[in-house]
Amino acid sequence: MNKRQLYIGVLVISVLGLFIVQYQYLRIGLNLAKVQFDRKIAYAIEDIRADLYVENQLTFLMAQSFTHDDYFRLSNDSLIDASSHFLYDYIKNDLVSNGIETDFSYRLYTRDSVISLEAPNMLDENNDQLVRYPMLLEGFLPELVEKPIILELQFHDLNTYFLSQLNGLTLPSLIFIIAIILVIIWILRSFYWQRNVITTTNDFINNFTHELKTPVFSIGLATKLLEERATPEQHTVLKMMREQVERMKKHIDKVLELGNLESRKKLFELEEQDVYPLLKKSCEDFETMARVENFQFTYELKGAEYIVKAEKFHLENAISNILDNAKKYSEAPEIALRAEKIGKHLQICIKDNGMGISAKQQQHIFKKFYRVPNGNLHRVKGYGLGLSYVSEIMKRHKGRIEMDSFENQGTTICLTLPLRYE
């Protein structure tokens, strides 16, 4: 599984997890809303029973429709219709007073169905989502007809009503989840777009540097042939040309090497080995250079062996890069290398007395092609690849690189590698 599939998998699982958590919260919210509704309906039923317990305008009108008296000189159908609307308004007022504002209907009846009064907007009683709250009335009406009277409140699809009560929680949560998904998708698209740009750039640079190797080799060969017949004056010029050709070859090889590492085209095999001899040889070679070029270099290798998992060639190149930088960026170089075991790690520190690097620039110094700004003039020529290469090598060795530097006070770079034990 590649990283892209892993990221997409994590995104999908995270989004599904968010929806599952949101669904569980929604279920809990609906259950709490139902409990709260049942409590409110209980209070409303008490109020309705109290209103219908005594004789008042409503119960008197309902009694006339039950007993068929001609007190109002109206037809019985008109009395029933008036009672139905009057009772509906009464119940609605009690429900609203207890915080229930949703559609409802009711049915008032006796068990023998002799008396029956229905709401003006009766709901379909065959609907499975119909919720009923029956109550047994007491007082004036049951005593008048001498029969138990039941008033049944009916509500349709209460879940929709509960969801409307939870809109303050559900809608913001859904909006935030959608926003998170869109942001993550945008970030992933930007990441892969930038990655494709970097890959394309690396491929171009690698192809371009490959093309440069042929003319550089030809120039080197030509200068070598010219040296055989050159005069002493020409030798000086040819020597300078050969030095520049060698310098160009090193830059080309470094660009190719770093490109291969980043694109993983080159096999990078770590082998368990003692790197003490490698460090010793690198220090001795650099010490010889110091004597020839007349600058100061000291080294101290504490211990007898450093067993690590390493790729010898690249680790040696990384150390050489730091030593070369220490020499190049110092007026009168004073360089010291110290290697020692600290706990379960090998630490290699290289200290110089160079120009130093500001804290702001240190945040970018390990980026590819980055060079510390110095106006339009760089006293030391280069392409900003050395420390980027070292940083990549340390990542491959599961180690780390740290820098401690102050402007005009020098720089200390430490490489830390995990030690291997039997």
Automatic annotation (TrEMBL):
Q: Which UniProt keywords apply?
A: Kinase, Phosphoprotein, Transferase, Two-component regulatory system
Q: What SUPFAM superfamilies does its record include?
A: ATPase domain of HSP90 chaperone/DNA topoisomerase II/histidine kinase, Homodimeric domain of signal transducing histidine kinase
Q: Which residues form a coiled coil?
A: none
Q: Which Pfam families match?
A: HATPase_c, HisKA
Catalysed conversion reaction: ATP + protein L-histidine = ADP + protein N-phospho-L-histidine
Q: Enumerate the Gene Ontology biological process terms.
A: cellular response to phosphate starvation
Q: Does the keyword Transferase apply?
A: yes
Q: Which InterPro entries match?
A: BphY/WalK/GraS-like, HATPase_C_sf, HATPase_dom, His_kinase_dom, HisK_dim/P_dom, HisK_dim/P_sf, Sig_transdc_His_kin-like_C
Gene Ontology MF term list:
phosphoprotein phosphatase activity; phosphorelay sensor kinase activity
EC number(s) given by UniProt: 2.7.13.3
**Gene3D superfamilies membership:** 1.10.287.130, Histidine kinase-like ATPase, C-terminal domain
List the record's Gene Ontology CC terms alphabetically: plasma membrane
Q: Give the top-rank taxon of the lineage listed in the UniProt record for this protein.
A: Bacteria
Q: What class of enzyme is it?
A: transferase
Q: Which PANTHER family match?
A: PHOSPHATE REGULON SENSOR PROTEIN PHOR
Q: Protein name, please?
A: histidine kinase
Q: Which organism is it from?
A: Christiangramia flava JLT2011
Q: Taxonomically, what lineage is the organism?
A: Bacteria, Pseudomonadati, Bacteroidota, Flavobacteriia, Flavobacteriales
